Amino acid sequence: MPRLSVDVSRAEIPVRETYRRRMAELVPTPAPAMRGTPGEQPQHAWTAVATIIGAVTVARAVPAGEESREVLGAALTAVSRLVVEA
Questions:
Q1: Is 68 exposed, middle or buried (0-12, 13-18, 19+ CB in 10 A)?
Q2: InterPro entries, from UniProt (predicted)?
Q3: How far apart are the first and last CA of the chain?
Q4: CA geometry: angle at 24 spanning 31 and 57, to 5°?
Q5: DSSP 32
Q6: 70 vs 58: CA distance, rounded Å
Q7: Which partner for 57 in 2, 9, 47, 83 could form a disulfide, CB atoms 3.0-4.6 Å apart?
Q8: What's the pLDDT score for residue 86?
Q9: Contact call for residues 73 and 21 (beta carbons, < 8 A)
Q10: What whole-number distance in Å separates Cα of residue 15 and Cα of residue 68?
């Protein structure tokens, strides 16, 4: 998803529209597992998806090692706070 997102951001409108539709189909899937009211859950799901995609993009961009792991760990911590505990 991170690489695809970068490529799609440079693509023509029809490709970007397809990506938008697919993301709109994807995001409702984790929404019920998010904290908050039913109205807040979709926003939290978008936050989680965007955080994960961004974190993977940044972690790949920096040299492998501690900083890369820190980026991924920070994203995991942030997204975990959005999810209802089982």
A1: middle
A2: Tet_transcr_reg_TetR-rel_C_sf
A3: 26
A4: 85
A5: G
A6: 11
A7: 2
A8: 64
A9: no
A10: 30
Q: Which residue has the tokens 């993301």?
A: 23
**Domain limits of the chain?**
2-80
What distance in Å separates the CA atoms of residue 72 and residue 59, rounded to the nearest whole number?
Answer: 7
List residues bridging with 42 in a β-sheet. none
Using one digit for the tens of pLDDT, what is the confidence trace for 6-55? 899 999 999 999 999 999 999 999 999 999 999 999 999 999 999 999 99
Q: What is the pLDDT of residue 27?
A: 92
Please, what is the Cα angle at 3 between 19 and 25, to 5 degrees? 30
**What are residue 34's DSSP bridge partners?**
83
Global confidence as pTM: 0.85
DSSP calls for 53-81: HHHHHHHHHSPTTHHHHHHHHHHHHHHHT
